Structure formats: C-alpha cells, structure tokens
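Bench notes, afternoon.
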Amino acid sequence: MRRPHLLVLAAAGLVFCLSPGAASAGKPGVPRWPVWLCFPGEAHDYCNARLTTTAIDAKGKETTTTPVVPASRPIDCFYVYPSVSLQSRGNSNLHVDEVEQEVAVDEASPFEQVCRVFAPMYHQVTGYAQQDHYKYSYELEYTDVRAAWHDYLAHDNDGRGVVLIGHSEGSFILKRLIREEISKTPSERKLLVSALLSGGNVVVANPGSSGTDMPHTPLCTSRTQTGCVVAWSTFDRTPPKVADFESVGNAKTQHVVCVNPADPGSTAPQPVTPWFPPFDSGGIAPLNYGYKFFWISFPGLYTAQCVRQGSRSWLLVARVRHPGDERPAAREVDGAPHGLHEADMTVVLPQLVALVRSESAAYRHR
C-alpha cells in the first residue's frame, strides 16, 4: 500500500519510540523490541492522537464531537501497518518516518477508544524493492513482528485479551503469525479476541476441501464471537479478472474470505461511515474541505455488503444517493485491480471500533 500524504502532523518529528524495557520486568530472557510506532505511555506514541471529529451529513450540516478515550481499557490491540515506506532500499530501516506516523493516525489511533494500541516498527519491504532491484526479505518482516509480539506478551500483556489489526502487508504478516504460532500455542490462542485483517487476501477451503490460510482459527459470524477472524478487501464494483487480493491457489477448492466488519455473518448491505483525517489522500480525499477539520466522517454515505462470485469475495461499497449530496466519493487510487484498497480501513472505521467494543465485552464475560 503506497500513497502520497499531504500534511505533516503537527506532532511529527522524525524520532524513535523506544520500548521502555527498564520500566517493566516481564519475563527474563525475552528481549525488548527496540522501536515502536505506538506504545502506551511513551512520549512519541503516534496512536495517541486527537480524535475530535466533524460529521458532515448529506445536506452539508456539520456536527462536531470528541470521542472519549477511557483512562483504563480492558483489552489491547496489536497493529501491523501496511506497505507505506518510501525509503529507497529493499527493506526499510527502523526509523519512524512521516508515512508511518500518518498511517498510525489514519488506521490505528481510533481504536484507542476501546483498547491500548501497540504497533511495532519493522524492516518493511519497500515499494522500491522489486522495481529498483534491491535485495529484500519478507522473512525479515515476519521475524521482526514475531519478535515484537513476543516482547509484548512477555512484558506488557499481563493476561489481557488482544485484537490483532492489520492492513495489506500487515495482514499478510499477521496471517502467518496466527497460522504458525498463535493458533498452535494454547496460552496465546486464549488471548485472541479477534483478528481484523483488511486487504490481506485471506483464503479458506471450500467444504470438503483443504487449503486454508488459518486452519485452526474460525471466521467471525457475529459481533460477539471471539477468537475469530474478520477479513475483507474493498471494491466499489465487481473486481476485474486481474484484481489484486482476490487470488487463490486452486479456484475449484478455495475461495477468498469476506466478513463484513459492520455485521459479521451478514451478506446484506449494512450502513457504514467513512472516518478519516483530512491529510489522508488514499481512497476518500475530502480536499474540497481543505484542512478545516482534523477528522471528518460522512454518516449515511455508503453501504457495505460481502459479495462472492466463485473463488472471489469482496466488500462491495455502494454510494447511497441523496438529493443534493455533494460529499466526495471513494476513488481508485491505484487503478481498478486495487479497487478501494487504500480505504479498506478508513471506509469502515466507526464500525470496526464498535465491533471491537462488542467483542471486548463478550470476551470479558465469556
């Protein structure tokens, strides 16, 4: 996921967020991960953002609210960001650049209302890796995130439930972490509240067949189910045959997953509300509003519905037409094969936050 960014955050300094190893004894012998994008209590926690939001309805009426971030939250979120690094190398270094800061605000900071958010920096394969013939390693990405996960579990989890949140490359990494470790480790599996995996091409086997990305982790079928996966890729029309995030190894025995974040288990259209900061130029860009607001939401703008055709499934986002509604529409930033990939998270953010709140309550009372 590569996209331009139009505004430097007011708090943005190119700094490292260092894990406070001395502050928490945790389990001896488990090293601290050195660089975090989001870490509760740190001075440079880029998920600790101002969430004052202006909702603009179909008639242009503006209503401003400030979502409450409780001092105490019962669960944690572990966020792995998408491919945003603009460094000219195969794998990025661990420097917290502007693009990582911005994507943390875009996609992860709203979850602070319902969970403590942890987000490690990792040696990401950059957008320049293949086109400029740099040497790169996807294995390095994974081992970084796994090491950060072990650090978090050993020193900061304290038995709290965890929601895994990934977008694009972050979802691919978390798929592997769930498949190879979490689902096979009882102590980790019992902590899983849910996994929200957007734009990650999650594949399951058809009934009677084999070949599932996470064979021991079910798909969520309700707002109160826990220990399960919500996965989707967003398009505003039927994806072309060459669509990204719609591929399977065997089209006769497998299919791509779509679980609607607004109502897991439902195949009917559900209302969703885009919610994003104005510097986000990916997906929905309210540039005609300038930078008057920090966060903007458009209630009643869309419905979202999971659609399946053969081996392909996607979250179909449809514009709800209101007379005189001049609010901006979603757009394909990287062409039809990508669909609304850049907006996978932001187009349904309020629904995702509500889902985590519901899952959290269910997890604590199970």
